[in-house]
Amino acid sequence: QVQLMESGGGVVQPGKSLRLSCAASGFSFGSYAMNWVRQAPGKGLEWVAAISPNGKNDFYADSVKGRFTISRDNAKSTVYLQMNSLRLDDTAVYHCATVISVLVVWNWFDPWGPGTQVTVSS
Amino acid sequence: IQLTQSPSSLSASVGDRVTITCRASQDIGVYLAWYQHKPGKAPKLLIYAASALQSGVPSRFSGSGSGTDFTLTITGLQPDDFADYYCQQLKSHPPVTFGQGTRLEIK
Predict the structure, then answer these.
(1) How far is CA B1 from CA A122, B7, B103, in A?
(2) How far is CA A64 from CA A34, A47, B63, B67, in A?
(3) What pLDDT score was predicted for residue A119?
(4) What is the pLDDT averaged over residues B1-21?
(5) C-alpha dihedral over A106, B72, A110, A50, to 10 degrees?
(6) Using CA atoms, how far apart are residues A24 and A74, in angstroms rounded to an integer?
(7) What's phi and psi for A14, nearest 5 deg?
(8) 3-class DSSP state for residue B100?
(9) Looking at residue B82, what is its pLDDT?
(10) Across the interface, which of B37, B42, B97 has its CB nearest the CB of A113?
(11) Angle at the Cα of A55 (from B90 to A106), degrees rounded to 5?
(12) Residue A78 CB: number of other CB atoms within 10 A?
């Protein structure tokens, strides 16, 4: 059974850093691109970042470019989101998601994890 | 590419047929998906490529459209269907973009 589970969320002050993890199981992790998507309180879904199956290519939303870094460890079947210089408007539930087709970056997201809460507050 | 969903919310009863629309700011062909999201849960892919039903999704869900106008239809609402629904485009990326969402509530 394909499963994704995020961890690493918490409460952090503005300007600080946090690293999220997403552990995958039940599929050939190294063959699939991975994404991070967030949902701020009362808002809709916002794509944050994507990484290619081999980890050599990464992509970011303008709102996080230069502050967030996506990476992956295929040996551990885990994708990470390093979040630096956190701002109040980064407060959200962060979901990881894989895609439905192998070896492509841009594809439909399925499945997703249930998410981890990140709260940026002074 | 901006996606605009309508309505933002709607109330319906079990057994009803409901339609949610998604309009793209430019032609995206059939590069559109629909997701269901319940609070505290993982979003779920329902429809991709505008009209293809994802494996395991009940056949009461259907999608149609191309270009700039798309619809998600649920025929015979079930109690489990009350949730938020989002469209997503994959024609132009990055970024991947989502509509603002439609909340489907029990009447």
Answers:
(1) 35, 19, 22
(2) 17, 10, 32, 30
(3) 98
(4) 97
(5) 30
(6) 10
(7) -55, 140
(8) coil
(9) 94
(10) B42
(11) 10
(12) 18
Query: Which structure tokens are listed for A74?
Result: 């295929």
Q: Which residues of chain A have pLDDT under 50?
A: none
Backbone dihedral angles phi then psi of residue B80, each to the nearest 5 degrees: -70, -10
Cβ contact A79:A68 at 8 Å: no
Contacts of B41 in chain A (CB under 8 A): 114
Chain B, 42 to 101: residues with Cβ < 8 Å from chain A are: 42-45, 48-49, 54, 86, 88, 90, 93-101
Q: What is the pLDDT of residue B14?
A: 96
Please judge whether B94 and A47 are an interchain contact, meaning their C-beta atoms are less than 8 angstroms apart. yes
* Contact criterion met (CB below 8 Å) for A49 and A36: yes
Indicate the SS3 state at residue A29: helix
Interchain proximity A45–B86, CB inside 8 Å:
yes
Between CA B13 and CA B77 the distance in angstroms is 7
- Other Cβ atoms less than 10 A from the Cβ of B55: the count is 8
Percentage of residues in chain B with pLDDT exceeding 70?
A: 100
For residue B49, list chain A residues with Cβ-Cβ distance below 8 A: 108
Strand-pair partners of B72 = B20, B63
Backbone region of residue A30 per phi and psi (left: phi > 0; alpha: psi in -120 to 50; beta: other values): alpha
